TrEMBL record, chains A, D:
Keywords: Kinase, Transferase. InterPro entries: DhaK_L_YcgS, DhaL_dom, DhaL_dom_sf, Dihydroxyacetone_Kinase. One of its GO terms (molecular function) is kinase activity. It comes from Gracilibacillus caseinilyticus. The lineage of its organism: Bacteria, Bacillati, Bacillota, Bacilli, Bacillales. The keyword Aminoacyl-tRNA synthetase does not apply. It comes from the Bacteria. The keyword Transferase applies. This is Dihydroxyacetone kinase subunit L. Residues 6-199 form the DhaL domain. NCBIfam families: dha_L_ycgS.
UniProtKB/TrEMBL annotation, chains B, C:
Coiled coil: none annotated. PROSITE patterns: DHAK. It comes from Gracilibacillus caseinilyticus. The keyword Kinase applies. The keyword Transferase applies. One of its GO terms (molecular function) is phosphoenolpyruvate-glycerone phosphotransferase activity. This is Dihydroxyacetone kinase subunit DhaK. It comes from the Bacteria.
Length: 205, 329, 329, 205
């Protein structure tokens, strides 16, 4: 059992901390190839998630994720709101009634990935957060994870890969060739989501 | 950042509050939402028209709410598409049973959030149709990408769809009229200075004294190309050239919009209009009507966009129809 | 300096050209002048109304030419009062035999040039009356000095005088109506950034990131006091406080104008309007009507002014009368 | 005879040269306490004066001055247009049908001074160009001028005096106490007018 209700709640808190701490960085990345609101969006969204969690009792991991999904969808807006909202909702659905181990976490992230694809119509290599979720799903499927930091190395490499890509989806696509040379902001915020996940999974119970 | 505001996270809230206070004779706000609607919504027998998007584009979108134009406008945070629940509230509030048309600008965020709202509304038994405005010729038109942005031309879609809906035309007809405008409208913009999202506090980019960004959107984003600052006439030539190359305008009548991005004095907009009028005359294209002013802004960005709408009989009469929307005359 | 223009010494010429091209259905330019007049001037049996001033205040003054408002607007160079010969041409073109009212903002230059024009017109047998608008409460009101400036409140003088003249009232009555507005109108402004006269190319002053100028005019001049940047609500409190202290408003009805100086986004103007509405409500002062937008600008200056006009029956009905002036609705 | 037709024409050219050369200085002075157009106004105005003169034949000093007066009134606008227009018109009237010596130059400047006062309603010490004209008239009345540079010293001292004055007329008066500490732009442009005058009077015939 790598995620409990408490750990999932903690996951949300850890995400929120990171979004607040890196709000300016994410916004700066979005200014370079987007409209400069990504850090603001993420900090606001996960701030609301945590506020909601604080006043609620949860029965299961799926419940926490579903609650987060609803809040993200209702409070972020922009591109990232529906995408992360859908991702967390798909995870919640996948994990419904289950205890969480690596295997069904992998299925949950597969489902999230499908959700992102369905919503955003993006494929691998279009310089979006899809790229990071894709590589994480792929990584979780390949071997039994001992050291969750390895997942983050995968994320980091993917983020770095987005830098030289030409964006073909999302706002950055309007820049065409000028979108190259900048890391995708959504990929970066996804990194913080998985960094937070690794942290809570590795936490002592 | 120098702005007249109280708290950076209350700008949308306070702006909407001020806006409905100022125009309470014709508009109101749906309680606990960021939705501005006509006082008389839903109008019996009339298709409801909903648009919206991130804030920071004022007078878009609430300025276009009124008889003969939008029934509701949904405001998101600055440059951030509103969320599905807000759009849903707008749809529910304006539906008289005749269905609702959503006018969406082609941004991933707007499309996704409005789509989700439409799904939710359909689940509640409301008929919803959508049109997606993509008038910005500076972006390559491709099925492999997100396609073109929706910018100032959107205002003409509001106007025409609103006028047709006011005649109690059925939803499919209103939608067809909106799509016709979308097919006939082209825009392109230029920025001389960036803008600052209040919550960020930092300018969206930096430009040297002698540089400008060609092919910008309405969100303070960089444009297609950074080039040396040019004369008003040369900029007009470039933008209009791109627009004219993108569509068939021979011997046509058009509506022209010179749209200020926020900080450009009206003086400069009319200097641009002058050249646009001269160029169109040379090409044998007739200006039927024009709009010079701020219609779809990007906070305090300096710059402007040119929009050309090719006219047919239906569009002409819809443009001339009266509206009491605050920002359109 | 980043501006959309061609030659710095042609800005007024090209702007006027663009303006009359855009609005040729209702306006025209007197050949070889910087005068914009109604197409139907002189209107038989109607007093002619002429205003004007330096350029750079767009939509003032040509934007207020139209049925129900001005018969002619005379444009000077940027921030420079027009010359007597130009004003004279305007007077001659709008006089139908009923006489002409000049609406002058209280600046030494404007007063002198319009005075000289009035003398020349009188010499040609035209009856001319003048009113001088001095609504800026930030300036001390003294007979030993030039007195107070005329700023955004001038637009209300145009509107009321124009509406009364449209009823074919005699010159003295139109003048009395204008003077009544002048007695009842007060304004005050603030700047967050300077502006640049095109021919000069240099900003009118420099302000630090955390400073603003309180009590500015409409020419990019420094204000009465330089103070730390404050919240929208506090600025509104200050300006409105000065205005309310200057006149008797108890239990009165007022018209409010929140006038952007050129670069201030509409978002911020509505945030200010919100606070003004709240404050007036607290004080038991009723807002009968409001105008939020750009009415009397200073090129691309950031900032705004608040105008309060105390109403009586005549002013109220004059404000509500229709006009087809471009910039007033 | 200190002014001939040719010298008067040359006076206008010398003024124009100075207004062009000092356009930025005059505008900067006007930015400090006015609206930043004084240099632009003066350069435009005397540019037009010279353009007019170039295409015209003149019979007398008065004719040249009258032509300049009309052009200044019609082409400058603002406060300085009517004021300088009036000043030159009054000089023309005073010198009508006369050859110019120091005495009637003094009367002409007295008349100009009256004209400025009538138009602008200013008195001595209100920090306007009236101050410079007043002191020049005063100087011309006191002694036989041998060295015209002395007139310029008077002007210079007056300009310096305007610095600490509080403006009570014109645009600078809106600044109240904040108008102190800046030289009056109109006084400075008047200096250039008299500097040009001294130059042409001292010129070899
Ligand atoms: N079609 C898409 N599919 C997947 N991800 C997308 C898509 N469009 C945008 N994104 C992601 O969303 C991020 C931008 O989010 P945000 O700035 O919050 O929204 P917006 O672009 O509406 O301002 C991008 O960096 C990208 O990773
Ligand atoms: N009432 C007045 N009497 C005399 N001189 C005046 C008066 N008002 C202004 N001036 C002079 O005019 C100068 C300003 O001229 P200018 O900048 O061209 O006009 P404006 O003030 O209309 O912009 C001032 O520096 C001052 O010397
Ligand atoms: Mg963004
Ligand atoms: Mg956004
Ligand atoms: Mg001036
Ligand atoms: Mg000046």
């Amino acid at each position: 059992m790598i995620l409990t209700v408490e750990k999932t709640i903690q996951w949300m808190r850890e995400i929120h901390k990171r979004m607040e701490a890196n709000k300016e960085q994410l916004t700066a990345l979005d200014q370079a190839i987007g409209d400069g609101d990504h850090g603001i969006n993420m900090a606001r969204g996960f701030g609301e998630v945590v506020a909601k969690i604080d006043g609620t009792e949860y029965e299961s991991v799926a419940d926490v994720l579903k609650s987060a999904a609803m809040t993200l969808t209702a409070k972020i807006g922009g591109a990232s709101g529906p995408l992360y909202g859908t991702a967390f909702l798909k995870m919640a659905t996948a994990l419904q009634g289950q205890e969480v181990d690596q295997q069904n976490l992998k299925s949950a992230i597969d489902q999230a990935l499908e959700g992102i694809k369905m919503r955003g119509n993006a494929e691998l290599g279009e310089k979006t957060l899809y790229d990071v979720w894709y590589q994480v799903a792929d990584f979780l499927g390949t071997e039994k994870v001992e050291d969750w930091q390895e997942m983050l190395e995968v994320c980091q490499a993917t983020i770095e890969d987005t830098r030289e890509l030409k964006a073909t989806k999302g706002r950055a696509s309007y820049l065409n060739e000028r979108s190259r040379g900048h890391v995708d902001p959504g990929s970066m915020s996804s990194y913080y989501i998985f960094e937070a996940l690794a942290t809570v999974i590795e936490m002592e119970d | 950042m120098k702005k007249v505001l109280n708290h950076t996270d209350a700008v949308v809230e306070e702006m909407l509050d001020g806006f409905v206070k100022a125009h309470s004779d014709s508009l109101k706000r749906l309680p606990d939402t960021s939705v501005v609607i006509r006082n008389d919504a839903p109008v019996t027998g009339k298709v409801g028209i909903v648009s919206g998007g991130g804030s920071g584009h004022e007078p878009a979108h609430a300025g276009y709410v009124g008889k003969g134009m939008l029934d509701a406008a949904v405001a998101g945070e600055v440059f951030t598409s509103p969320t599905p629940d807000q759009v849903l509230e707008a749809i529910k509030a304006v539906d008289s049973g005749e269905g609702v048309l959503l006018i969406i600008k082609n941004y991933t965020g707007d499309v996704m959030n409005f789509d989700m709202a439409a799904e939710l509304a359909e689940a509640e038994g409301i008929t919803v149709e959508k049109v997606i405005v993509n008038d910005d010729v500076s972006v390559e038109d491709s099925t492999f990408t997100s396609g073109r942005r929706g910018i100032a031309g959107t205002v003409f879609v509001h106007k025409v769809a609103g006028a047709i809906a006011e005649t109690k035309a059925p939803l499919q007809e209103v939608k067809a009229a909106a799509e016709n405008v979308i097919k006939q409208v082209r825009s392109m913009g230029v920025a001389l200075s960036p803008c600052t999202v209040p919550a960020s506090g930092k300018p969206s980019f930096t430009l040297e004294e002698d540089e400008m960004e060609i092919g910008i959107g309405i969100h303070g984003e960089p444009g297609i190309e950074r080039v040396p600052l040019q004369s008003a006439d040369r900029i007009a030539d470039t933008l209009l050239g791109k627009i004219l190359a993108d569509h068939e305008y021979d011997n046509s009548e058009v509506a022209v919009m010179i749209n200020g991005m926020g900080a450009t004095p009206e003086m400069e907009l009319y200097i641009v209009y002058r050249q646009v009028a001269n160029l169109l005359k040379e090409k044998g294209i007739t200006i039927y009507a024009n709009w010079v002013g701020e219609y779809m802004t990007a906070l305090e960005m300096a710059g402007f966009s040119i929009t050309l709408l090719k006219l047919d009989h239906q569009i002409k009469s819809a443009l001339s129809a009266t509206t009491d929307a605050q920002a359109f005359k």
